[in-house]
């Protein structure tokens, strides 16, 4: 709701009631509050790409995978419906009742991501892939207790700042979906609510990229972290035990 409504305010306000920075900040705030809300229940599973990755790696059961993905889909779909209702009058006035994906007054981009006109499909795919790699690397850094993890209680805020940073640095090409459950459910809603099937055909059938690229990026980010950081870190107890063993051998 925070993220989509901020886009609506920027688009429908024609730049007078918000800027690109306000969109990024709103998504960061939404992520922060979402993790606070669900952290005690699921550990903060807001992203389908990360949820799928955790299940495939054996850290999450298939039953929980189904429950979390269902919750993510329903939450995101409901958010789109909420923002649609909240800004319906402004939408109607801005478009004269003609909800379009492209053209002089496109509004589908309020709800889901679409690639910039000057970006190729491979370039857009790579953008979503790399942005998700950075997301997963950041999440791993924030939560890795064997490393210099964030202080307890600050993780949601820092995750929100992480999303803000990704938007500020890698949002121009595609709008940084970096999450299938953030992009696909609102797209389904717009198809139902008046924008039609074009939401799935626009941008060279772009819709599948925010679904697949983040999943691949999530696995790659986890692999990179394991290879270059996690495998080289040891818990404090192991370090202390090895130090004591060396002291004994020296004696």
From TrEMBL:
Transport keyword on record: yes
Keywords: Cell membrane, Glycoprotein, Membrane, Repeat, Transmembrane, Transmembrane helix, Transport
Keyword Repeat: yes
One GO cellular component, as annotated: basolateral plasma membrane
Annotated transmembrane regions: 20-44, 65-88, 121-142, 154-178, 205-225
Domain of life: Eukaryota
Catalysed conversion reaction: H2O(in) = H2O(out); glycerol(in) = glycerol(out)
Membrane disposition: Multi-pass membrane protein
Molecular function as annotated in GO: glycerol channel activity; urea transmembrane transporter activity; water channel activity
Main location: membrane
Cellular location(s): Cell membrane
PANTHER family in the cross-refs: AQUAPORIN OR AQUAGLYCEROPORIN RELATED, AQUAPORIN-7
Family as reported in the entry's similarity comment: Belongs to the MIP/aquaporin (TC 1.A.8) family.
Protein name according to UniProt: AQP7 protein
Highest classification ranks of the organism: Eukaryota, Metazoa, Chordata, Craniata, Vertebrata
